[in-house]
């Protein structure tokens, strides 16, 4: 069975989807990614979908589910490289992808993740010092 590689970059995980997503591959990615978030205590997840030309409602839901599961595991999610046709399809399907922040490219996506992680760390530190 195909697997999508998940790379560790500091306290973040990078997923680059280079193949057409089918339902079973999306489910496998969800399982693999949540396991890697827990294993590495990752604080951020960047998913690059620049190679995806088509998404359906199931793949859209799986991306939203991945973001929700990541949040529960204390990781932020940024989706990068969305093609215009994919954005149009998601909007036409009525999918807002709650919990997923987007960026045009991987570089900008990593900047966003770093900012969210630093902001979260600052909030945690100030919460602890106010007691």
Describe this structure in a few short sentences.
The chain is an alpha/beta fold and 131 residues long. It has one domain (6-120): Transcription Regulator spoIIAA, CATH 3.30.750.
For the structure shown, list the relevant keywords.
Transcription Regulator spoIIAA, 5 strands, alpha/beta, 131 residues, 5-stranded mixed sheet, single chain, 4 helices
Describe what this molecule looks like in 3D.
The protein is of the alpha/beta class and 131 residues long. The chain has a single domain (6-120), classed as STAS domain (Transcription Regulator spoIIAA), CATH 3.30.750. Helix content is 51%, strand content 17%. It is built from four helices and five strands. The protein has a five-stranded mixed sheet, with helices on both faces. α1 links the parallel β2 (12-16) and β3. α1 packs parallel to α2 (57-72). The longest helix has 24 residues, at 106-129. The protein is globular, with a radius of gyration of 15 Å.
